[in-house]
């Protein structure tokens, strides 16, 4: 996203954080099925604050948050994903109330607009994954700190279990830290290191538009390493990714108020113990 595009925020119906009783870094939310859109895909199962995607599919949150000073946390299971399949959990920043696929945007300009995209995790399920921050809607120069379409990336390796917890901490200065199973991941820092201008775009975008959860599975680009099998497009049909225990600490910018974690109860259906096959 270009810095000049941020002036659009003056025209947007921004939701007041005070209207939701939020202060500081906001409340802790555990989005459930009613808080999520199914953008596409017909084999998506929700349970508690999580989902299972079989085959091609994408879900997105109806709410966007200012995540600065807060975090997103989830557990990801890629033990049953196919070779060459991209499984992911990321954010995008649409410039209006979130209505599912109709408002989808990312740094590549998919849909009807382009916007800031923060790929917390993109994994092919078999050998590697990456975290990438995209802040500018320009082609730009590769490997610079502006984190444009090329992005600023940290390569990450998969644990042997292929099941792991991820926590993305969003710092007040616009930078982000990724923790895997409680440890700052060794793939950090991002390369190239984001510039001050890049971080300023993150800060401005978070306060103006917020960040929406996006999570999908599709066959195509996946983190590339020499030992990564390529797979075939048919493999995605039976490929499965499980995202569970999703938590978001942030201040609502657009959209409805999602489920608070404090409102989760023992009777809430969950994905624990649900087979992925």
Overview of the molecule:
The chain has 277 residues and is mostly beta strands. It has a single domain, classed as Jelly Rolls, CATH 2.60.120. 5% of the residues lie in helices and 37% in strands. It contains one helix and 14 strands; from the N terminus they run ββββββββββββαββ. The chain has one helix at residues 196-208, and strands spanning 27-29, 36-40, 44-46, 51-54, 57-77, 85-92, 117-123, 128-134, 152-157, 163-170, 176-180, 183-184, 211-219, 240-254. Strands 1, 2, 3, 4, 5, 6, 7, 8, 9, 10, 11, 12, 13 and 14 form a 14-stranded antiparallel beta sheet that branches. A hairpin with a 5-residue loop joins strand 10 (163-170) and strand 11. It is globular. The N and C termini lie far apart (39 Å).
Defining traits:
single chain, 277 residues, mainly beta, Jelly Rolls, 14-stranded antiparallel β-sheet, 14 strands, 5% helix, disordered N terminus
**Discrete helix count:** 1
Provide the CATH topology: Jelly Rolls
Mean pLDDT: 83
CATH architecture: Sandwich
| SSE pattern | EEEEEEEEEEEEHEE
Report how far apart the termini are: 39 Å
From the alpha-carbon coordinates, what is the Rg to the nearest angstrom? 17 Å
CATH class, anyone? Mainly Beta
Regions with pLDDT < 50 over 5+ consecutive residues? 1-19
How many separate domains make up the residues?
A: 1
